[in-house]
């Protein structure tokens, strides 16, 4: 495996130097492990070392994102050897009866489906000013799918959670390079026992692909993507929150608003949980030229654990706002498609804005709360167009 990885590293460097597309991976992987590399489908490559693929916003025109167009966020190498027959999931810690489950065991449990909008906490990071380090996501580290699999709570109840069990930890099977700590995070027991928190084995009706956590991942709906651990291998019930890199210093947010550029002490932060309210314009594209007359403005809006109450569109820089029409397809935790028919009477340069409000009364702010890692960027979205 190591030599294959080195080979891939070498060809990837060469491919990048030559300006080649990542489709080179498709033939480089043995047939048995090959999955369609989403880069072939016009995805934006944000990192090649560990596969990080962003969905172009123009693809946000279906309620469910086709799997090859679903963004991918990996902190490390994907596990090379994943055999569904050999795979086991262990469950231990603060439980009466530790368990080891096979994929066949999971398939015997009642299946539940949740349509969930999964968003990386770092989505929109490139728009933060001053700039912050990290993967420079544009607006497309977010996608929506129907995830299916047994409820996490059914498995936890089978093991019998002790009264001392307050957090549930997930460990992924990522291949950890060098000194990078393993991908381990925990969520509070209340969220773990929620009827919609899953051990997902399927996405849009098909088994998970390797990019998305085959053969099983946690699905923690409405929360930052990092909560939904891929390539699940271990679940452990803990007395306290897991202490490790991906809980701290990563994925934490300042307790109080901070000045842009200000340093924040770790003790003044808390772990990120649910997503913010947000909308993104999927068309027209930023910088597009459009003909005067009727212009279809469209996009998506989501709000983590809340529902979208309304989306408004402004074509005059925010002086006046007009209600957008929300798409019919909806589910708790899932984004809504929206559209607005703009009558662009006069030629000229325009800025189109979109602003979502949710059922908790939260509205997208004009500028997002700056924080040192650029998490949860959710400022009112905008595109500039020229009408001729
Ligand atoms: N799980 C493991 N084991 N390793 C990871 O790197 N990345 C997390 C999460 N689960 C990650 C993981 C992050 S940061 C996000 S945003 C989501 O997976 C992305 O899920 P996706 O790649 O299926 O879109």
Features:
25 strands; 5 helices; disordered N terminus; 388 residues; mainly beta; 10% helix; single chain; 5-stranded mixed beta sheet; binds ligand MTE
Description:
This protein is mostly beta strands and 388 residues long. The protein is 10% helix and 33% strand. It has helices at 2-17, 24-28, 103-108, 152-159, 189-192, and strands at residues 44-47, 52-54, 72-73, 88-93, 99-102, 111-119, 142-150, 167-172, 184-188, 198-200, 202-203, 206-207, 217-219, 232-238, 252-254, 269-271, 278-283, 289-290, 293-302, 308-314, 322-323, 325-326, 336-344, 348-358, 381-387. It has a five-stranded mixed β-sheet with strand order 5-4-14-8-9. The longest helix is centred in the first third of the chain and has 16 residues, at 2-17. 44% of the residues are buried. Residues 70-76, 118, 120, 172, 174, 183, 211-212, 225-226, 228-231 line the site of ligand MTE.
Structural category is mainly beta
Mean pLDDT: 90
Order of helices and strands: HHEEEEEHEEHEEHEEEEEEEEEEEEEEEE
Q: Distance between the terminal alpha carbons, to the nearest Å?
A: 56 Å
**What portion of residues is helical?**
10-25%
Biggest sheet details: 5 strands, mixed
Can you list the strand order of the major beta sheet? 5-4-14-8-9
The gyration radius over C-alpha positions equals 21 Å
What is the number of beta strands? 25
The bound ligands are:
ligand MTE
Please count the helical segments: 5
Q: Low-confidence segments, ≥5 residues, pLDDT <50? A: 1-35
Beta-strand content estimate: 25-35%
Which of globular, elongated, flat, extended, rod-shaped describes the shape? globular
């Amino acid at each position: 495996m190591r030599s294959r990885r080195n080979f891939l590293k070498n060809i990837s460097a060469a491919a990048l130097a030559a300006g080649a597309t990542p489709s080179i991976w498709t033939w480089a992987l043995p047939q048995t492990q090959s999955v369609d590399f989403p880069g072939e489908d016009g995805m934006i490559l944000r990192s090649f070392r560990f596969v990080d693929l962003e969905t172009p916003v123009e693809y946000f025109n279906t309620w469910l994102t086709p799997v090859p167009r679903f963004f991918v966020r990996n902190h490390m190498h994907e596990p090379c050897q994943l055999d569904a027959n050999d795979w086991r999931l262990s469950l231990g810690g603060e439980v009466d009866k530790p368990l080891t489950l096979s994929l066949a065991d999971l398939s015997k449990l009642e299946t539940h489906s949740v349509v969930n909008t999964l968003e990386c906490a770092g989505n929109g990071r490139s728009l933060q000013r001053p700039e912050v380090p990290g993967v420079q996501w544009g607006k497309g580290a977010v996608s929506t799918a129907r995830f299916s699999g047994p409820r996490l709570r059914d498995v936890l109840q089978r093991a019998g959670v002790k009264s001392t069990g307050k957090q549930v930890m997930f460990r992924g099977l990522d291949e950890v390079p060098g000194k990078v700590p393993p991908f381990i995070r925990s969520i509070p027991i209340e969220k773990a026992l929620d009827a919609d928190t899953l051990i997902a084995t399927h996405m849009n009706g098909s088994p998970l692909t390797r990019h998305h956590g085959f053969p099983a991942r946690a699905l923690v709906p409405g929360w930052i993507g990092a909560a939904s651990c891929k390539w699940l291998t271990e679940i452990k019930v803990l007395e306290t929150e897991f202490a490790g890199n991906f809980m701290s210093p990563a994925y934490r947010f300042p307790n109080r608003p901070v000045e842009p550029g200000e340093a924040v002490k770790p003790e003044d932060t808390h772990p990120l949980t649910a997503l913010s309210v947000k909308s993104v314009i999927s068309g027209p594209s930023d910088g597009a030229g459009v003909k005067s007359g009727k212009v279809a403005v469209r996009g998506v809006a989501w709000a983590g654990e809340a529902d979208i109450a309304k989306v408004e569109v402004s074509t005059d820089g925010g002086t006046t706002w007009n209600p957008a029409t929300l798409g019919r397809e909806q589910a708790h935790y899932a984004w809504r498609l929206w559209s607005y028919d703009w009558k662009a009477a006069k030629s000229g340069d325009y800025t189109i804005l979109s602003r979502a409000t949710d059922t908790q009364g939260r509205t997208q702010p004009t500028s997002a709360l700056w924080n040192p890692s650029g998490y949860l960027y959710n400022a009112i979205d905008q595109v500039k167009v020229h009408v001729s």
